[in-house]
Design goal:
The chain is built from six helices and seven strands. It is of the alpha/beta class. Helix 5 links the parallel strand 4 and strand 5. The protein is globular, with a radius of gyration of 15 Å.
């Protein structure tokens, strides 16, 4: 599915970073960043330009090829790993930051990946996430999965990351203008959490 989505000259989610990530970059810990479901690489490349050591993991080799092209065009390097998050093993205490932007996973996999992510952070490491909430179903055509079980709530994420210090878990609405696939009003949840 994702290879087909990304098999176009267009960057379907644009080449600019996610707005929530951009607004909160100053909260990240210097060092390494793992970008989950980074697709065509807009967020990973942005972070690499700021001096972070970036690894982008995604299911789509087509998306990651475009991510490498975007990195080259911006004179930066990112590491790319083509993997299903079902199979990708995050090592404990190895990432200074983990970023998850619109990486919508089925509930069992979501819980597994979020638990592994909490363990994988180094001390004072940051987990940053933005995803669509179930209210997004009232805004058809503007982005996000069309099924409720793939959408996230603040309560769900607080539960997933109860081992971390959650200092923001906000459900809100904002204009999401990030490529042709995310365009228009969005009902989102924004999470920032720290490993203490």
């Amino acid at each position: 599915m994702w290879d087909k989505t990304y098999s176009t000259d267009e960057f379907v989610y644009g080449t600019e970073p996610n707005a929530f990530l951009k607004a909160n970059t100053d909260k990240l810990k210097p060092g390494s960043v793992l970008c989950l479901g980074d697709g065509e690489g807009r967020n990973g490349v942005y972070l690499a330009k700021l001096g972070f050591e970036v690894t982008s993991v995604d299911l789509s080799e087509t998306g990651l090829a475009k991510a490498r092209e975007l990195a080259e065009a911006n004179n930066v390097e990112i590491n790319t790993i083509c993997a299903d998050l079902n199979d990708y093993a995050e090592e404990p205490n190895c990432w200074d930051n983990i970023v998850s932007i619109f990486c919508h996973l089925p509930p069992p996999l979501r819980k597994k990946v979020h638990a592994a992510s909490a363990e994988a952070l180094t001390e004072n490491g940051i987990f940053l996430l933005e995803a669509y909430t179930p209210r997004q179903l009232e805004m058809p055509g503007t982005g996000g999965p069309p099924v409720p079980e793939l959408l996230y709530s603040a309560g769900m994420l607080k539960d997933d990351f109860q081992s971390l210090e959650v200092f923001q878990a906000l459900e809100t609405e904002r204009e999401v203008n990030e490529g042709s696939k995310h365009y228009g009003p969005g009902a989102v949840v924004q999470l920032l959490a720290r490993k203490t």
